[in-house]
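During the second half of the funding period, the structural biology subgroup turned its attention to how the target accommodates small molecules. The most pressing case was S-adenosylmethionine, which had performed well in the primary screen but for which no bound structure existed. We therefore specified the complex as follows and requested a full 3D prediction, including the ligand pose.
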Amino acid sequence: MTGKGNEPRQAIANSLQEWQRKEPIVTSQKFDSKNKFDPKNIEKLDRPERAQWQSITAFLEILQPQSGMTYADIGCGPGYFTLPVAERVGPKGQVYAVDLQPEMLSELAQRAEAGGLKNIKTVRCEERRIPLPDDAVEAACLANVYHELEDTPAFLAELRRILRPGGRLILIDWKPIETPMGPPLSQRIPGEIIGQALQQAGFAHRQDHDIYPYHTLIEAS
Ligand SMILES: C[S@@+](CC[C@H](N)C(=O)[O-])C[C@H]1O[C@@H](n2cnc3c(N)ncnc32)[C@H](O)[C@@H]1O
């Protein structure tokens, strides 16, 4: 499988460095590779106005969740995208809600219980490892997580591994533009660089969907 050796990692690191050299970013906040979304700020993920700039309906139109589908939401947080997908895949479906931070998983589990959703399994993952078997799911999403990853080639290789052949990944992340909220510009990765990383990780097909004002959405398989 591609993406496991050092060469692709070096190629991505080089292209990222090249992009940062061409597009120097002025920001008062220093890049912190361990910068994870703080669970104390969960309410920021729940604000009703989020629907205006990151509509779930538009996301679902792309994902097209079907009854019985197997799906993983990686870096699920408290479940903004997970819960509506779980409703649609129904009792015959299986949703893995995967996150690094246990606070996120316990909040999501409470919400799933309150909503009567029994098809969600919470899974605690490690920075570079997703503890799901090979070919576990038909589709996965990585929403607002890519800029927090410490080792994107390793993580994308894990995503490729857990997806069945032909399985789809929906990757959403902040555009490298000024926006009223979101992470500092210095942490945001242009869609082109993400696309290269996906290719290096073995995703052969890529389609960009320009549905969000502040976010890139890439569908890859
Ligand atoms: C900004 S939140 C987004 C949550 C959710 N996807 C959403 O859009 O509302 C980023 C989440 O990614 C998780 N995360 C960061 N690095 C991760 C990794 N290597 N593996 C799994 N989850 C990770 C964080 O713990 C956090 O819950």
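Two results from this model are relevant to the next phase. The pocket of S-adenosylmethionine is lined by residues 36-37, 45, 74-77, 80-81, 98-101, 104, 125, 127, 143-145, 148-149, 155 (CB under 6 Å). Residues 6-22 form the longest helix (17 residues).
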